[in-house]
Design goal:
Number of strands: 2
Shape: elongated
Helix content: 55-70%
Order of helices and strands: HHHHHHEEHHH
Radius of gyration: 31 Å
Number of helices: 9
Length: 194
């Protein structure tokens, strides 16, 4: 065996665990046969769990891509964006994201993200120069909300509320009021003005 100082010291507990782990570790396995069946090229997988996770993720992505883009639900904030675009178009003619950001006191990245979602869902279009146009469905929503806003503001002013407060309150009410209630208010207000 030779002198003691030349003999290798036994491996520490940590080294033994690492050696044991590396011996039991799977060799790189290609996911490519499974991917080829799905028409996708995937990277090499180094263990079965990772391989299974990649396979599951690919299946979910394939299912999601078949469904297509889901329509976004129009909530108060979306209605406010569309209404702002309509108001700015009537006021200035052409509208850009920066105009909407300044009008609503939002950051440019927030407005850009919203415009991206509106484009994906077919509510607005944007040309190469960044000018925003409402589509038919976007204009329909914007005009409905803006009509509510104007009528509710006029009605509150008629009741004696200051114009600033009336505009703020109308902005809150316009999103929550039902179509039936709004139609009754509209009819009642038109009779008052005769």
């Amino acid at each position: 065996p030779g002198p003691a100082f030349l003999r290798a010291a036994p491996p520490s507990r940590r080294k033994r665990r690492l050696l044991h782990h590396n011996q039991n570790r799977l060799r790189p396995v290609s996911c490519r046969p499974a991917a080829a069946a799905q028409g996708k090229a995937l990277p090499l997988c180094y263990d079965k769990r990772k391989q299974e996770n990649i396979r599951q993720l690919s299946a979910k992505q394939a299912i999601g891509s078949r469904k297509g883009v889901q329509k976004m639900e129009i909530h108060e904030s979306a209605e406010n964006y569309l209404e702002a675009i309509l108001v700015l178009q009537q006021k200035n003619g052409a509208v850009r994201s920066i105009d909407v950001a300044q009008h609503m006191n939002f950051t440019k990245p927030s407005v850009s993200r919203a415009m991206s979602l509106f484009r994906q869902n077919g509510y607005v279009t944007m040309d190469r120069d960044g000018f925003i146009e409402l589509t038919v469905s976007g204009r329909e929503i914007a005009e409905r909300i803006y009509e509510r806003h104007r009528l509710l503001t006029d009605w509150l002013i008629h009741l004696g509320v200051s114009p600033e407060t009336a505009a703020e309150d109308a902005c809150r009410i316009e999103h929550d009021i039902s179509r039936e209630t709004f139609d009754c208010l509209k009819e009642f207000f038109s009779k008052l003005q005769l």
